[in-house]
Amino acid sequence: MSKYPEPTICAADQGLVLRFWGVRGSTPVSGPQYAEFGGSTPCIEVRCGERMFVVDAGSGIYNLGQGHRTDLPRDVDLLFTHLHLDHTAGLPFFKPAVLDADRVINTYCGNLGGESAGPTLDRLFAPPLFPVTLDKLCCTFNHHGFEAGQTLTFPDGSRVDTILLNHPQGSVGYRFEHGGRRLCLISDIEHSDPWPDPELARFVAGADLMVYDGMFTDGEYPTCRGWGHSTWQKGVELAQTAGVKALAIIHLHPAHSDTALRDMEADLQAEMPTAFIARESQSITVGAPRSVSRRAGSRPTVAREVRRRIKVA
Ligand SMILES: [Zn+2]
Ligand SMILES: [Zn+2]
């Protein structure tokens, strides 16, 4: 399965745009049964006009690097939801960015009580677990810690709101606003009882698009309680309570094949017609009348054609 997307060119402000470079949870998978939704672990590109953010460094960040070989900004802001392996293991393979001496990669970590990702990543990427340490790579890393709930403010004036999510060791939800549009990324999270959580509902209220952890179905959840993940049904409940206009499900279970996910998507859209299950390499212009699916190297499928007709907002 070829996955070398064409470079994305953002010469002008195209609004609030995200691209899913990895949507699989827990561990990467491969094989023909994953051809449509993809097997890479979480990595999402967010564009606020020309301003780029990268959320998470799962194995999908390899393809992000390949897709932006020529147009990546010198300073890359990498926002971690948290540091579990499926969200960090791709970082040394973020090529060619990490091999560029002029590149600065700023990481942001908000689930460790203010501690940055630096000490954890230094433990992870070190012998014998990994042959080289991050400081041996050509780029410069600057690791920033914050406490989830704070608003991140960047030197160019950009702001990103955050919230702490219920997950082992915590996870950070992000809210991006640009051009009158609002995008919320809510993964990894286990829903609470009662649900929806009022603070979270306020955080995502009125979002044009919410990306949500739907690793399990409601039927599967009872045997996976306490594992830190949620269901698409709980995503719909949160979206409908909070007036969220469209919903994308990510952190897909490694055992959920394309066939299973297409069936799940049909059930999802019966409950919320503007909802869909995210596909690797898919690009979404938040609030645009139509979403755009650009999975390089693959043919359109019936399901994808249906997806194109869904209004995102
Ligand atoms: Zn995860
Ligand atoms: Zn996790």
UniProtKB/TrEMBL annotation:
It comes from the Bacteria. The lineage of its organism: Bacteria, Pseudomonadati, Pseudomonadota, Alphaproteobacteria, Hyphomicrobiales. Signal peptide: none annotated. InterPro entries: Metallo-B-lactamas, RibonucZ/Hydroxyglut_hydro. Residues 40-215 form the Metallo-beta-lactamase domain. Pfam families: Lactamase_B_2. GO terms for molecular function: 3'-tRNA processing endoribonuclease activity. This is Phosphoribosyl 1,2-cyclic phosphodiesterase.
